[in-house]
Design a protein that fits this description.
Structural class: mainly alpha
Order of helices and strands: HHHHHH
Oligomer: single chain
Number of helices: 6
Number of domains: 1
Helix content: 55-70%
Strand content: under 5%
Radius of gyration: 18 Å
Length: 151
């Protein structure tokens, strides 16, 4: 049991040290890259259904932190749905995961701005760092695909 405690302590200490190293670095441009053309079909607006009006109403009644979190939802949702229109399943999966991860980065940035708990700020930085790596990996995977044109 002591080995498990020590192992957990080492992992947590490593995560904390890593977060300290990158904590003041801004989110990179990779987290805001547009979806590649392969990620959507011609009718990728999924019926032009937007939650933005509802989100705006909720945000108007919320404190600044909640309002900022709410505003990360619609772009993520719409882009995830757009990604689902990719013709091939694996491509649709990756194309939907990119905006999902970008949304996580944006939410974590909001957490860094409004949170007061140091652990939340550290955790938010870990999310930003990890998600950016994964976004980059997903863009690299898409770049390896044969040239495809949308519907």
């Amino acid at each position: 049991m002591d080995l498990l405690k020590w192992g957990t302590a080492v992992v947590l200490a490593g995560a904390f040290a890593g977060a300290l190293v990158v904590r003041d670095q801004p989110a990179s441009a990779i987290s805001t890259l547009a979806l590649p053309i392969v990620c959507s079909s011609a009718d990728a607006d999924h019926g032009a259904v937007s939650m933005q009006g509802h989100i705006d109403m909720m945000a108007a009644m919320a404190d600044a932190g909640h309002a900022a979190l709410l505003q990360t939802m619609e772009p993520m949702h719409s882009d995830m749905m757009k990604g689902m229109t990719a013709v091939e399943f694996q491509t649709a999966f990756i194309c939907s995961m990119i905006p999902h991860h970008q949304g996580a980065v944006e939410m974590a940035q909001v957490a860094q701005e409004f949170a007061t708990d140091p652990w939340i700020k550290m955790f938010a930085q870990e999310i930003i760092t990890d998600q950016q790596v994964e976004i980059s990996q997903m863009h690299a995977w898409l770049a390896r695909l044969p040239l495809q044109t949308p519907d």
